[in-house]
Amino acid sequence: MKRIAASYVYTGRDIEPIVDGYVEFADDGTIVSVGKSAGKGSEPVFYNGAIIPGLVNSHCHLELSHLQGKFRKGTGMAGFIDQINSLRDSKPREEKIADARKWLEVLWNQGVSAMADISNCNDTFAMKASSPLYTRTFLEVFGTEPEDCAGVIEDVRRLKAEADKAGIDAAPTPHSCYTMSPELLTAASAEALKAGYLSYHSQESREEEDLMISGTGALADNYKGRNLSTPPVTGKPALMYFLDRLGHVHRPPFEEHVLLVHNVCLTQEAADAAKEVLKNVWWAVCPLSNIFIHEALPPLDLMRRNGLSITIGTDSLSSNDTLDMVKEMYCISENFPYVPFGEIVRWATFNGASFLNKPSFGSLEAGKKPGIVFVENLDGNGRLTPESRSKRIV
To answer: Rounded mean pLDDT of 58-63?
Structure first.
């Protein structure tokens, strides 16, 4: 049995911290008790900062770690797509795997206990299988031409068989409205819903919205310039088109776990439509990636006002300078200073674990093994600073 204490203990469930709190845990990391301590002088191990549960990165592309520092910022989605097409294979496979393995270790040491990760190939399967960091892998598919649908689904089913053989949790998932024909969007969604978990890039950019609402804008021009098919113009937010395609899989409501990622252009109309049919929906934000590509942020005020279950991800090193969850949390705190730190912790821990349906993660509660993380360099009010860092205790 071990006992540690800190200036603040955030359970992950509760917004308010336990000031001068303690956590007791067994040798295997199982939480025994959490409570109020008698203060710094009364505890054998006291951390001047915050103790929180292990972090849950709800959106990452680990296999793109070799692209760190290679992308121009502020290009918008059309420019980003051109760069990913040009640079994705800019290193040999062995070097890609080495970079991904390095960052998986970094994530673990920084306190990430669980992650929803995107894969387009098998590069990260073996390292995930041997890592103490739990991952659910979303095998993301693309294909703008309807005639390619059957072949794409056949290929991703083969990839899932490889993931199953490696012993990791994985299943196909759709990417986004603009990278998939209507037929493929429905087919990939069917595979995801069959597994019970779906992750989807939703309303990430104004260019995506313009494409769906009016068939215009930089993304539409990019696709037309490459002679690629574009989705039907609907006159409505892109999320509503996705919900319509889901309806071709089975009738609503949808009880499966659905993660909508980015949500930069979320509107009240789209939020209402999603809440109507998605009964287990989470909304991932990746603020540093959104700034990197679009110089924009998701509408957290609207999301909080609607009581949405928000999670936090880092996206990839093609659209971020780091995979540091605390940096994402600080970005939120800096741009939305009225959001309590404890609420941001909940997004980064408990909510992400809830999406993954991993109740042992996400909160400091007796009987759970979420991992224990120390966040240092807080300001005098217990808020994050540019120097804040996280490191794993357990």
So the answer is: 98
CB contact set of 344 (below 8 Å; sequence gap of 6+) = 312, 329, 332, 333
Residue pair 392/373 in contact (Cβ under 8 Å)? The answer is: yes
Confidence of residue 40 (pLDDT cuts 50, 70, 90): confident
Strand-strand pairing, 372-376 and 389-392: antiparallel
Q: What's the pTM?
A: 0.98
What sign for the dihedral angle of Cα 114, 118, 123, 125? positive
Q: Which helix (H) or strand (E) holds 310?
A: strand 310-312
> In 3-state terms, what secondary structure has residue 138?
strand
* Cβ–Cβ under 8 Å, residues 348 and 9: no
H helices of 36-119, in order, are: 76-87, 93-109
Write the CB contacts of 156 (distance below 8 Å, at least 6 apart in sequence): 139, 141, 172, 188, 191
* In CATH, 55-323 is 3.40.50.11810: no
Choose among 11, 133, 64, 1: nearest CA to 318.
64
Residue 44: its pLDDT value, please? 86
The answer to whether 175 and 187 are in contact (CB under 8 A) is: no
The single residue listed with the structure tokens 């936090």 is 312
Peptide bond into 253 cis (omega under 30): yes
**Nearest-5° Cα angle at 340, 334 to 341:** 70
3-state DSSP call for residue 302?
helix
Q: In terms of Cα–Cα distance, which of 239, 195, 200, 202 is closest to 357? A: 195
- Measured CA to CA, the distance from residue 73 to residue 213 in angstroms comes to 26
Q: Which two three-digit tokens encode residue 93?
A: 């496979």
Spatial distance between the Cα atoms of 89 and 92, rounded to a whole number of angstroms: 7
Q: What percent of the chain has pLDDT over 70?
A: 100
> Tokens 């121009």 correspond to what residue?
72
Angle at 265 between CA 262 and CA 268, to 5 degrees: 110
